[in-house]
Amino acid sequence: MLEDRIPLEPERPDPRKPAAEKPGLKISPIMFVFGIGTLLVLGIAGYLTFGPKPAPPPEPVLTPEARQYLPNLALEGVHMQAAESFTNQRVVEILGNIANHGNRAVKQALVTCVFYDYSNQIVARENDYIVGNTAGSLAPGATRPFRLAFDTIPDSWTQALPTLVIREIKFE
User: Nearest Cα to 169, choosing from 58, 63, 59, 98?
Assistant: First the structure.
């Protein structure tokens, strides 16, 4: 009964035979570098998407010089109309004229449109230039038309003409 014999010494591996592979995960160096690179790209994308947001720009403020000149600027014939954009979205347009009754050329004038709901609560504030940027400056004694278009006003707005406030004036 040779088969029933128990060996006294454990079998030693034959150095000429390849070692038996142990079960488990094998990661090649290329896969390791690819995995680290993927984690790095996902981390950067996550930071740019969900990371700290830049501070909003400061609210425009009338300088003492601009505040003194403000009575010389008049918003005239201001009215409102609605239109539809190419994407079938409602666009609210504020149209009117700005007149410069003073003796200085105005390089830029920023107006804030304040929209209210039926409870007289502010539902939107929109800033836009009525002088400057593309239209150029407004000479003393001149009058120029302006058009402000908004497509993001909430439905809770009263549909009434918003309050227009000149928030910033820059001179040439």
Answer: 63
